């Protein structure tokens, strides 16, 4: 595939090179609004569509998925304009049929590239990449639970101090201002910068600073999006397929456009504003290195214990214990989960964030080695604990079917059975080299569980069902599956329990606007009603 551009990709790029940025971004925003229940927000006359298109059902033949809009928008930004394009015939961006044509071209281009990369030996690996591209959009990650979790982990203590020092802006004000911008962009295709304090629960200064941090001009976006793709092309171990190009909109979800004497702003996929100021806060804080990252890691462990206890009070999630082994200080795994006086599961928490290579690399284990090295180390830490309890070094009362869980902030091994096999095999070698007392009996099959999936299953399960799900995940035939899917093998879900925490505890804006009633719905619904 190196250096080869398929005919369909060449045609798609040629068409995008003739499209005006303003028109395309208007079309992208309108399409997303049309297919997410916001068609009433589309101004009359700016976008024509068939009534069948006002649905995101993949079965109606008119669907344009959010991840496809994101891919097309980034292709637009990384495609140089054809000289004189403004005076040449172009596609009509005021008509839904145009983005439908572009989407079908995109799908054909992706299909053309597939046989150049995928064969019988690596086809399962592709599920890992497809999952990272599609699952977050399908699960609508922008929920009040995601907001609270990010506020708890990133918006307190050392992390908050570092953000303010770096940007001259309080981190809670930043998230609050972004929330205001999100509600505005959900309902408006283009808008000028907010310049009135009327009815705004956040200072105008915070909104302007936040707008600057989250936005980019079209000219800057073209330059920086191209540089981003080039950067990852140099780092990747193989050419980047069209479906998995890095997304500039995840860095700058708002694009501004100078028109006459006014600068207008749009967010073609407003959900990305909230992604940027929730999970994306990590990338603002990563430059703080060890003190900042350590603070976030500690709060992730605290959040994990807190959410388990809140959803299922029968559980007693205890923090790590310190002890000595061969005169050296050692710690147990981060969470010792007790039920009826016995430790029924132990969890090692890893807050390491997914990198681009970990999600989309052709060889994720090698391309994102630092992150996966942490997973290998986590497996070892679980096995060392089991070995030390077996030897009596730790006097802990373990259940016979106790499980070891790798609890991650991101989905590091999503749909990755072969990848998990590889990590477990590496952990066995690592363990033998680090602690010769670890035996095969101690090497219990680890459960790989992202915190979002744990949140989900906690809300519809009792204690016994959670433990049964963990045990099910250690079966050989379940090793490629995710916890959420295997929970349904255990039995019917319980009536969903509401998310137990209120973002208003950490973000006054949430409490001021009385949005607690939205806690179990996607935050995008709030934008329909404004602030």
Topology:
Layout: H1 7-16, H2 21-34, H3 66-78, H4 96-117, H5 123-139, H6 144-154, H7 157-167, H8 171-187, E1 191-192, H9 204-214, E2 215-217, H10 218-235, E3 254-259, E4 262-266, H11 271-276, H12 281-285, H13 289-311, E5 316-319, E6 322-325, E7 328-331, E8 335-339, E9 342-350, H14 356-360, H15 364-367, H16 369-390, E10 398-408, H17 417-434, E11 447-450, H18 451-458, H19 463-473, H20 483-490, H21 508-512
Parallel strand pairs: 2-3, 9-10, 10-11
Antiparallel strand pairs: 1-4, 3-4, 5-8, 6-7, 8-9
Helix pairs in contact: 1-4, 2-3, 3-10, 6-13, 7-13, 8-9, 13-18, 16-17, 19-20
Tell me the strand order in the biggest sheet. 5-8-9-10-11
Q: Which structural class should the secondary elements be placed in?
A: alpha/beta
Helix content: 40-55%
What is the average per-residue confidence, as pLDDT, rounded to a whole number? 88
Q: Largest sheet at a glance?
A: 5 strands, mixed
Contiguous helical run count: 21
What is the subunit arrangement here? single chain
Count of distinct strands:
11
Strand share of the residues? 5-15%
> How far apart lie the N and C ends?
49 Å
Low-confidence stretches: 516-531
* Rg from Cα: 24 Å
C-alpha geometry: globular
């Amino acid at each position: 595939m190196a250096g080869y551009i398929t005919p369909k990709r060449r045609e798609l790029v040629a068409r995008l090179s003739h499209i005006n940025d303003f028109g395309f971004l208007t079309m992208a925003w309108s399409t997303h609004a049309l297919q997410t229940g916001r068609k009433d927000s589309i101004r009359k006359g700016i976008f024509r569509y068939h009534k069948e298109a006002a649905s995101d059902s993949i079965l109606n033949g008119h669907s344009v998925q959010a991840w496809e809009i994101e891919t097309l928008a980034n292709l637009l930004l990384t495609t140089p304009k054809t000289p004189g394009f403004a005076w040449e015939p172009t596609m009509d961006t005021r008509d839904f049929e145009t983005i439908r044509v572009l989407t079908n071209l995109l799908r054909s281009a992706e299909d053309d590239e597939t046989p150049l990369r995928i064969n019988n030996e690596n086809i399962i690996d592709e599920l890992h990449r497809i999952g990272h591209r599609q699952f977050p959009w399908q699960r609508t990650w922008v929920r009040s639970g995601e907001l609270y979790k990010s506020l708890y982990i990133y918006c307190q203590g050392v992390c908050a101090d570092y953000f303010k020092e770096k940007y001259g802006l309080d981190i809670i004000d930043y998230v609050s201002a972004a929330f205001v911008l999100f509600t505005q962009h959900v309902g408006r295709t283009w808008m000028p910068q907010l310049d009135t304090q009327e009815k705004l629960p956040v200072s105008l200064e915070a909104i302007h600073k936040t707008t600057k941090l989250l936005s980019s001009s079209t000219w800057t976006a073209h330059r920086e999006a191209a540089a981003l793709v080039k950067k990852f092309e140099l780092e990747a171990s193989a050419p980047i397929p069209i479906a998995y190009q890095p997304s500039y909109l995840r860095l700058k979800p708002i694009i501004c456009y100078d028109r006459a004497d006014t600068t207008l702003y749009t967010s073609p996929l407003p959900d990305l504003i909230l992604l940027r100021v929730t999970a994306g806060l990590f990338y603002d804080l990563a430059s703080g290195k060890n003190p900042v990252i350590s603070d976030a890691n500690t709060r992730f462990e605290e959040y994990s214990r807190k959410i388990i206890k809140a959803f299922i009070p029968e559980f007693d999630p205890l923090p790590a214990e310190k002890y000595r082994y061969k005169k050296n200080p050692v710690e147990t795994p981060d969470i010792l989960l007790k039920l009826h006086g016995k430790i029924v599961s132990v969890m090692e928490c890893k807050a390491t964030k997914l990198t681009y290579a970990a999600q989309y690399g052709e060889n994720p284990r090698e391309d994102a080695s630092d992150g996966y090295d942490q997973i290998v180390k986590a497996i070892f830490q679980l096995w060392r604990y089991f070995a030390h309890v077996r030897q009596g070094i730790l006097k802990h009362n373990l259940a016979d079917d106790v499980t070891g869980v790798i609890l991650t902030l991101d989905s590091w091994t999503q749909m990755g059975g072969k990848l998990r096999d590889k990590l477990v095999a590496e952990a066995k070698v690592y363990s033998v080299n680090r602690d010769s007392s670890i035996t095969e009996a101690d090497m219990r099959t680890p459960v790989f569980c992202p915190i979002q999936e744990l949140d989900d299953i906690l809300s519809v399960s009792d204690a016994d069902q959670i433990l049964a799900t963990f045990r099910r995940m250690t079966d050989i035939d379940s090793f490629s599956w995710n916890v959420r899917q295997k929970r349904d093998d255990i039995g019917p879900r319980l009536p969903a329990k509401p998310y137990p925490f209120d973002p208003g505890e950490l973000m006054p804006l949430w409490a001021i606007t009385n949005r607690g009633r939205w806690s179990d719905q996607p935050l995008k619904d709030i934008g329909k009603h404004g602030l």
